[in-house]
Structures are given as C-alpha cells and as structure tokens.
Please model this.
Amino acid sequence: MSEAVTRTATTDPGLLASLDPLLREWLPRQRWFAGKGRPVTGFSPVAATELLPAHGSLGLYHLLVRAHQPPTLGAPAQPGDCYQLLIGAREALPPRLAPALIGHVTQGPLAGRTVYEALYDPRPADVLLEALRSQARIGGLRFERDRSQEIRTGLVPRVMTAEQSNSSVVYGDTFILKLLRRVVPGTNPDLELPLALAREGCARVPAPTAWLRAELSGESYVLGVLQPFVQGASDGWELALRELAKGEDFVAEARALGRATAEVHTALARALPTVTLGHAQLRPMADGMIERLDATAQAVPALRPYAPGLRTAFEALADLAAEGQTWTAQRIHGDLHLGQCLRSPSGAWSLIDFEGEPARPLTERRMPQPTVRDVAGMLRSFDYAEHSVSPSVPGWADACRAAYCTGYAEAGARDPRTDPVLLRAYETDKAVYEVLYEARQRPDWLPVPLSAVRRLAAPDLS
Model:
C-alpha cells in the first residue's frame, strides 16, 4: 500500500451466506464470544471489506457481522452483538495455520477454498500494520495514526495466544495491536482515555500510535488500537503468582502499583471533566447495587445467608448521601485488576486495557465514577491471587491491600481507607459480581469471592 491509500471495497453479497454454517460452529468456541450457552441462529452483515482480492493465492476479508441468538429466559429480544472478524481464504492451509481453521467453503464466491482466522497468518497481520502506517481508507475502514510516532516496516508479527476478551498481535517487540472483537458504535474508552492521558504527558499508560475505526451509516466504531509494546514486561497477575509460589511478599510492588494508579487517576481528572455526586446520584447507585445483590442471591443460594449483612454496605452509603455527604466522580479505568497492569524490566508499572467491563453498556463505561471503584477492583485482585496458590499464604493479600492504599496516598491522592463506607460499598458490589460470575463460569472458584463476602457482611464493619 502507498501513503494515504483510499479505495472503495467491493465484496460479493453472497460472501456472508456462504460463511454462515461455518461461523455458527466456530464463533461460539472463541474465548471472546459473549453469547455462550445460546445457539447462533444466523448472521446479518454490518460491513464487509475486501482487503486482499479473493482471486489471489490469499484472500483477506474484514467483516463486521451481527450474530443473532435467542434471548435468555424472560429477557426481551435483542438485535444481536456485532463482532469484528478477519477472515483469510486459501486453497489449503499450511500445517502452521491448522489452529486457525474455520472450515471449508462449499458455495458462494469462496467455494472450494479454506477459510481461517487470519490474525494467525503473518501476511494478513502485515496488511493491517501497513494500512495503519499509510493511513489507508478502504471502504468504511479508517486507518489513522499519530504522525509523530514512527511505524517501521519489516516488523515480524505474532499473535498472542493468551486467553483474553479481544485479540492482540505483537509486531517485532515494538508495537502491540489490540483488535476489539465485540464492537458498538460510539467513543470507546480504550482509545479515548489513553489519548487523553498522552495529552497530559502521563507515562503510566502507553500512548496510542495508531488506531482503526469504521464509519458506517453516520456511526463511528473503534475497532483496534496500536500501542508501543512494553518489551520484557511482566503481567501483574503472573508476577504476583510467581512471588506467591516462592513464598515472597509483594508489598513493595503493591505499593508502587498504588502510586501508579493514583498518578493515572490524577491525570484523568486533569484531562477530563469531574462531577460531584450527591444524594440524587448516590441513591440510585446504591439501589442498583442492592438490586444486583438481590438478583445474585436469587441465582446463587450460597450467597443468601450473607445478603442482609451485605445490604448494609449499600444502605450505609445511601444514608451518608442523605445526610448531605458528597463525593467526586471522574473518568476511571473501570475494570482494574492485576492482569491489567504491566511491570517493565526497570520496575515501572503501566496500566493497560481501558475498555472497561465489556459486558456493560458503552454509555455506562464512559460515565464519571468515584476512583475508589478502581481501587476496590485491585483489592479484590490481591485476594484472588492469594487464593490461587496452594498452600495459600495467610495475610499475603492483607499486606498487599494495605501497601497498595499507602502507595496510592503517597502519590498525592486521598487514601481510600479514609472513606471506609464508600470503599466497602464498591468492594462488596465487586464481590457480588464475582459470586455470580464464578457460580456460572467457574464453580470451583466460588469459595474465593464467598470468603470476601463473609468478611464484608460482618456487622462490625462501618
């Protein structure tokens, strides 16, 4: 591709119909597919873009498709989630691409060819990077970049195989491209917040180098973000587990991570508007927490004995608001835990993945919230780490939690422990969410959030 490539994209209208039976089998098996447990009944196209012509040795298609499924019991019918797919087409797959197989097409424009998940193939991955470098416009796709950052050619791509809710490709230990899988129109915080932090000069978050959007029928979709790759970095979750397995404490790292979190929160408060939450805002928030608690207790019997004690955490918050207390809300990470943090070989911590909880509506993910919500997520993550090794190390999580809050305060932010009612409410809400998730997805892990539930429901907490 040359600089600033602009071309229309023509795609055979029979393409999706020919892929339909294969995608019905393949899509529900993907880690990032959100509709597990319900069959896919069909697909409708949102956009289909040919990136490499089908008549060549390698065809490449960018698809945005809506997957239709029957609604869950008692729920209203939904239009179906929109997924981003990158489909490669070859006469036959070489053995190295066997894990990427989707299936063999028997009809339509790709009849007789084999289709596969193209991110596993270096050539399609190269096409994406070159399109970002050249700021290509292909059909409704917009490949955009920060011109102050260089994107070199010849970087060898490799797909990351770790389980995640999206897909990532690393280019020569220089960049990492995160492709969002389930996409919605609107401003995505995974691009919005790192750009805002880059403008503030916050070094705790890698600044976006380039990004991919789609402009369709007057709506904009963020599809992917290219950022510098932190070479040699350790994932916070894996690092914590390694230290635990060796019987080592994590106090110094937790303290440094607290400082990093506070620096990000401070930069976000400078970059984007803050709001004040009073009774009018806190009462509906507390009611929502109570509703989630009641629904989870209904679905998970093991939670029911603790529900009355947990409810007091939310009622205490509403009572303070009714007495006139207010809190500041701002943009936050929204899904902070050890797995969203990277420690570089120099020891510096970075925060990544600002998408928020993907299951929540985009408007909700972009709402200002108290920073303690992020803090509560990290405190719960320390608890999970302690319970993930055998034998467990009693007191490990408590020491990390205290060190994290100390580091947070050392960076100039308010110590979360000075607002125990707000902290307890958010940690309780997070633990209730974890109970429902583990009961449905990983029953063996249910004792982890239940141990927190017993502590949070204790009547002597205030």
In short: The domain at 234-456 is CATH 3.90.1200.10 (Aminoglycoside 3'-phosphotransferase; Chain: A, domain 2). DSSP finds twelve helices and 19 strands in the chain.
